[in-house]
Specification:
heterodimer; A: Ubiquitin-like (UB roll); Porin; three-stranded mixed β-sheet; 6 helices; globular; B: alpha+beta; four-stranded mixed β-sheet; two-stranded antiparallel sheet; 6 strands; about 60% helix; mitochondrion outer membrane (chain A); transmembrane beta strand (chain A)
């Protein structure tokens, strides 16, 4: 429709009155041509007011709203106002942004002149909260403290501590600075400490490090992140029964890595998209200093097709390949690839596919995994239009393989498909807020190798990115 | 019973206990006595070992049979007389000893601390028992490997002494093994200390546990010793641990010259910059903390040398004109003394005073030369 919606409800009724003013001035039989009509209305933005600014500096606000002056007709004004609102929102300085459009009055007002008013409410100096967070098949309690808009240009400092259900703890202090420019660059620097236990691999790891992230958009939809991470990682043996191969990996390592992530997200929804696709490419080079060295490439593709109403076919393919840089450089267990578990190959234990030593999963240098899902609403549609829409049923089949494949291998396709693992099943998926998907599946591992740890029957999964 | 605690590292428990006891000592709630003081008070370690450990284990067994769920004991629930509390204290100390926990002192613990760590210890005692029982059934495997840091560029004086002691012991037992140097041997070791051996599925670290492990296979150097001599031997071994090893730690980490020229270079050699500097600091802080607990950090260099001299004198008095400390056959005490003194004599340090002290005891030098000739020269012909 081209109208601009404000975030808060109380401002909403004001907005439609503005276009109606123009509509009224024309004969009523043109009701069905309204959009064309809006297009045709000549309009010029005379003035823009931004109310409610206290700490925020003018220059970044100007950058966000300058485009609005270029509007030539009324629809253009609406679209540009909407875009300006999104940009203001992206600054992270305001908790509330309302847009008002009015005809321009008083001295110097042009005949088609409009005045646009942005009514903003700034965040407090310090905000905080306790929330939940969903990660790698685990739920976590997140305690956060934020100081938004620190110097008036959208800079913020945030402090987060999370404690996961699987004894994972994370501590993170980050400084984030959005910068001016048409590529919407954003600079993040953070100090982190994370502690994770991997009983399936018999180790626990404590990471302490620094992360610099530079993110920008090369076009509106293509997002880049360039990261440099330096971390001291302490891998410790989890128990006396841990296999010796894992024990041999114990000790400290220093990783310094450059990473480039490209993501193109054209989906219409994060959790249950009905159309659109997602492409994510990650390249990582470790070994610029430190004693961990490898080259790593990964991809993740997801496509969604709406077959008939509410029946969505989702296909996912992901894969990764890494190789060591030199014999002097280590590759940590946490750098390597594992397969299996409720987020990847259903019907297998977490990290249950691939090489194991005395029951502990060992990593591999390459993997691929794919999944095909048919999502449908709950049978007989209970709670339609409300609670019931949070649930979907799905039939799925997943396949994948993990191993030390080599790209130079002539029969690469053969070796990738030689010992492919396949599982299928049926389950219920649930949208958890707008951040995670929960799945309860009944799985049937179909093809597997001798050393794999299968998990037939009911499997529970929670996470953000599923295969 | 095992619950989520079976993954607990002994090292962690000991560190926690050490910390707790340190705090308690300062609060004067509890009391901690270094081992040598206990010996002065004529507490016989062997008695503790045989009597109280079984008591303790019985205690645990009755506990574990009553409760299938993990033991939850509130301090309010505890209603026991003083006698059993004393027994408990002794038992815990003995269990710590039995588990070969590397703390070189005994605790007199309050109820609170005892129950705090009991649950964690219970699971470890059981695991340990099971492991020992299983291990005893198998003969000495062919592919035993002894893991230690790199001798030329990495290893430090105290670690080298301990590694050499274990090597000497295994050679005295005529057991086959291969030395496998690893940069991360310390991190790989289940107790965080080197050396450790891998025999089949078992990983055992440090001299005393290895001696125990070997004994469980029916191989022993002390079968001819009567109980009194055995307890004597253990007393001398703890003397060497408590004086020689601590003195070596002191010289490596607290003597500025040695630290700067030798210790920091060698200890940091396995880490890339800047991790080497960070790790040196971390390790040094750990060692200093330990020395403070033992009451050595406040000592001056000359006091440390005096301690070493006293220790050498005590060993010389014991050895007299015998071939080995207990008759004509070597024991683990001989292995331990050899490990320490040989390392002290052969390691070049900026401050060579400690080597000079040892050189003043020709009886000990003779012993070391004898052991080296008998057990090490045969294979290493260079």
């Amino acid at each position: 429709m081209g109208t601009v919606h404000a975030k808060s409800e109380e401002n909403a009724p004001i907005l439609p009155t503005i276009p109606q003013e123009h509509i009224k001035s024309e004969p009523a039989q043109h009701q069905d041509q309204r959009e064309i009509f809006l297009d045709g209305v000549k309009a010029r933005v005379d003035k823009i007011h931004v109310d409610g600014l206290a700490r925020t500096k003018d220059d970044i606000i100007e950058d966000c709203i300058r485009d609005l002056f270029k509007a030539a007709d009324f629809q253009d004004v609406l679209l540009r106002a909407h875009r300006a609102r999104l940009k203001l929102d992206e600054l992270g300085c305001f908790k509330n942004i309302a847009v008002f459009i009015d005809t321009s009055k008083g001295q110097g007002a042009s005949p088609d002149g409009l005045e646009v008013t942005f009514n903003v409410t700034e965040h407090k100096r310090v905000t905080g909260g306790v929330t939940t967070q969903v990660g790698n098949n685990e739920g976590a309690l997140l305690i956060g403290l934020r100081a938004p808009n620190l110097f008036g240009r959208g800079e913020r400092v945030q402090l987060e501590y999370s404690h996961g259900s699987k004894r994972t703890t994370n501590f993170n202090v980050a400084f984030i600075k959005p910068m001016r420019g048409k590529y919407r660059p954003m600079f993040t620097t953070s100090v982190f400490q994370s502690n994770a236990e991997w009983p399936v691999s018999g180790y626990k790891q404590l990471d302490r490090g620094l992360l610099f992230d530079f993110g920008f958009h090369s076009t509106a939809l293509i997002k880049h992140n360039i990261q440099w991470e330096a971390a001291i990682r302490d891998l410790a043996v989890l128990s006396r029964n841990t296999s010796f191969e894992v024990r041999e990996q114990a000790g400290l390592s220093l990783k310094s890595a450059l990473r480039h992530i490209i993501s193109i997200d054209l989906r219409d929804d994060l959790i249950f998209p009905t159309s659109g696709s997602l492409l994510q490419l990650t390249s990582e080079v470790a070994g610029l200093g430190g004693d961990v060295g490898f080259l790593k490439n990964e991809f993740f593709i997801q496509g969604n097709y709406s077959l008939v109403e509410d029946f969505v076919l989702q296909g996912t393919l992901s894969g990764g390949f890494m190789r060591g840089l030199s014999n002097d450089m280590k590759i940590g267990m946490s750098d390597m690839y594992y397969l299996g578990g409720p987020l990847t190959l259903r019907g297998f234990q977490m990290r249950g596919v691939g090489p194991h030593s005395e029951g502990d999963a060992l990593g591999s240098m390459a993997y691929w995994a794919s999944g095909l899902h048919l999502f449908s609403p709950l049978p007989f549609r209970p709670g339609r239009g409300g609670f019931g829409d949070l649930f979907k049923t799905h039939l799925f089949i997943t396949a994948g393989n993990v191993g030390d494949f080599s790209l130079s291998d002539k029969n690469l396709i053969d070796s990738l498909t030689a010992s492919v693992r396949i599982s299928y099943g049926v389950g219920i998926a649930l949208r958890l807020g707008n951040m995670a998907r929960v799945e309860v599946n009944y799985c049937f591992p179909h093809t597997f190798e001798k050393g794999d740890q299968i998990h037939p029957g009911i499997q529970f999964g929670i996470g953000v990115q599923f295969v | 019973m095992f619950g989520d605690n079976c993954g607990d590292d002994i090292q962690n428990v000991v560190l926690d206990i050490e910390e707790d006891v340190c705090r308690q000592t300062s609060d004067t709630e509890g009391e901690m006595l270094p081992l040598d003081q206990i010996e002065d008070n004529n507490v016989n370690i062997t008695d503790l070992d045989t009597l109280s450990v079984s008591d303790f284990l019985n205690d645990l067994d009755s506990q574990s049979s009553h409760n299938t769920s993990p033991v939850n004991v509130d301090s309010d629930e505890i209603d026991e007389d003083i006698e059993s509390q004393n027994k408990r204290e002794i038992a815990l100390a003995a269990v710590l000893e039995n588990l070969h926990i590397s703390c070189k002192f005994k605790f007199v613990l309050t109820k609170k601390v005892y129950f705090k760590y009991k649950r964690r210890l219970v699971s470890m005692v059981l695991v340990d028992r099971i492991q020992i029982e299983l291990g005893a059934q198998e003969p000495w495997p062919k592919d035993v490997k002894l893991f230690q840091p790199y001798e030329i560029e990495q290893i430090l004086l105290p670690d080298n002494a301990n590694c050499l002691a274990v090597q000497a012991f295994l050679k005295m037992c005529n057991l086959e093994f291969q030395v496998e140097p690893r940069a991360n041997a310390e991190a790989m070791s289940p107790s965080g200390k080197v050396p450790f051996i891998k025999a089949g599925a078992f990983v055992v670290s440090e001299l005393e546990p290895i001696v125990q492990f070997v004994n469980n296979k029916g191989i022993t150097l002390t079968d001819k010793l009567d109980p009194e001599m055995k307890s004597d031997m253990r007393a001398y071994m703890s003397l060497v641990h408590n004086v020689m090893e601590v003195a070596e730690l002191y010289i490596c980490w607290c003597d500025k010259e040695t630290y700067n020229e030798v210790t920091s270079v060698r200890y940091g050699s396995i880490y890339p910059w800047p991790l080497n500097h960070i790790q040196n600091r971390v390790k040094r802080a750990q060692v200093i903390k330990k020395l403070k607990v033992l009451g050595w950090y406040q000592k001056t260099m000359s006091e440390v040398f005096q301690e070493v001299e006293n220790c050498c004198q005590a060993l010389t008095d014991r050895l007299e004109d015998k071939d080995f400390f207990f008759g004509d056959k070597p024991t683990e005490l001989d292995a331990l003394v050899f490990g320490h003194l040989f390392t002290i004599l052969t390691t070049p340090l900026p401050n060579s005073h400690i080597a000079n002290i040892v050189r003043n005891y020709p009886i000990l030098i003779n012993l070391i030369q004898r052991i080296e000739r008998d057990y090490f020269k045969r294979e290493t012909k260079h």
